[in-house]
Amino acid sequence: MKKLLVLSLLALFSAALVRAEVTRADLVDRVETCEAILQEFQSRSDTAIPAAVLQKARALIIVNQFKAGIFFGVKDGYGVILVKKPNGRWSLPVLISAGEASLGLQAGATAVETIYVITDETTPRLLFNHRFNVGVDAKAIAGPRAAEAEKYNEEILRTPMLVYTKFAGLYAGATIKAGHLSRNDSANALLYSTRYTMPELLYSDWVKPAPEVEPLMALVQRIAP
Asked: What are the boundaries of each domain within the chain?
């Protein structure tokens, strides 16, 4: 009986990891969800990214994740990255994957929405190597909120990654060592109907924005000119 229960749980867990074929409409929905996440963050003083932080931004990553599990906690999801070009204009939003695996007894499920403000030119390029570990490949701390003006200082603003999340337990100055981000070339090929991959999409003007991504680009340009 116990063996049957274990096998059943493993089967359910495996089935949950099987993904249906992703369509372009699904990818558009991901971009629009990331836009909504950024809008919601900026609409509240307890979650808004301060203007002083956004002025330092050289890239933004917006991530939507889902954490669930019984015996294994699996945090998986997607996101977009945009970089600020030398002319002050923001790039196309480029789709990425986001995930984290952890051991331990975990029940229930939690949605996790995170915005990473990258303040240097080199950190975004780490994604070119396919996988980037937050807090390992670059130092990351929780960033100050708009309601915490007294916590702004140059040392914080020089940190390569400032993290803003709705997941409980992260505070300004806390080191972030969990989670990974990776490029998703197949998703971008489908979304933009191109063979160009992340480097060209982010740093060149060879691909025109799809109409569906223009609202997110306009929002980022407005809050971080």
From this structure: 22-223
pLDDT in tens, 160-209: 888 888 754 343 444 444 568 899 999 999 999 999 999 999 999 999 99
Query: What 3-state class would DSSP assign to 161?
Result: strand
Say if residue 200 is exposed, middle or buried (CB neighbours under 10 Å; 0-12, 13-18, 19+).
Answer: middle
**How high is the mean pLDDT of the chain?**
79
Element (H, E) at 165: strand 161-165
Distances in whole angstroms, Cα of residue 111 to Cα of each of 107, 133, 205, 219: 13, 20, 34, 23
Beta bridge partners of 95: 80
Residue 140 and residue 179 in contact, taking contact as beta carbons nearer than 8 Å: no
Distances (CA, A) of 93 to 66, 201, 210: 21, 8, 10
Nearest to 130 by CA among 103, 99, 93, 159: 99
Q: Is the pLDDT of residue 19 over 90?
A: no
Q: pTM value? A: 0.80
- Nearest CA among 128, 33, 134 for reference residue 79: 33
- Please return the burial class of 36, using the count of CB atoms within 10 Å of its CB with bins 0-12, 13-18 and 19+: middle
